[in-house]
Design a protein that fits this description.
Layout lengths: L13 H17 L4 H24 L14 H10 L8 H24 L8
C-alpha cells in the first residue's frame, strides 16, 4: 500500500480463511445449527481478524504483536452480531460474548505460553 506496509499480516492466508469457515460450518452442524450459521460466524470472525490486522499494519505495529482490545473485539463482535440472523441474541448477549471471548483468549494465551506452546504470553 502507499504507506509501505502490507495489507494484512503474514499469518493471514486464504487457506486459514477457508479453514475457519469450513470448521465453523461443521461445528454448527454438530450443535444442531444450520451449516450456514457456522459459515457466517466463521467468515465474520475472519473479517474481524483481518480488520484488526489491517489497522495494526496501518499503525506500523509488528506482526503478532498484542494490541489489547483490537486483537479480541472485532474477532468476537462481528460473528456475535452476524449470528443474530440465526440466533435470538440481544445487545447484552453480544456484550457477554465479546467479554467472555476476550478474557478467554487472553487466559488461554497465557496458559499456552506457560506450557511451552507459545513463545509469547499473548
Amino acid at each position: 500500500m502507499r504507506d509501505g506496509h502490507p495489507l494484512l499480516g503474514r499469518s493471514n492466508t486464504w487457506r486459514g480463511l477457508a479453514g475457519a469457515i469450513v470448521f465453523a460450518a461443521c461445528a454448527a452442524v454438530l450443535i444442531s445449527l444450520p451449516w450456514q450459521a457456522g459459515a457466517l460466524a466463521g467468515a465474520s470472525a475472519m473479517a474481524g481478524d483481518c480488520l484488526s490486522s489491517f489497522v495494526k499494519r496501518r499503525f506500523g505495529l509488528e506482526p503478532s504483536s498484542m494490541t489489547l482490545g483490537l486483537d479480541q473485539v472485532p474477532e468476537s463482535l462481528f460473528p456475535a452480531v452476524a449470528s443474530g440472523v440465526y440466533l435470538p441474541l440481544g445487545p447484552s448477549d453480544v456484550i457477554a460474548i465479546v467479554l467472555v471471548f476476550s478474557v478467554g483468549v487472553l487466559a488461554m494465551s497465557r496458559l499456552f505460553y506457560a506450557v511451552g506452546l507459545r513463545d509469547r504470553p499473548y
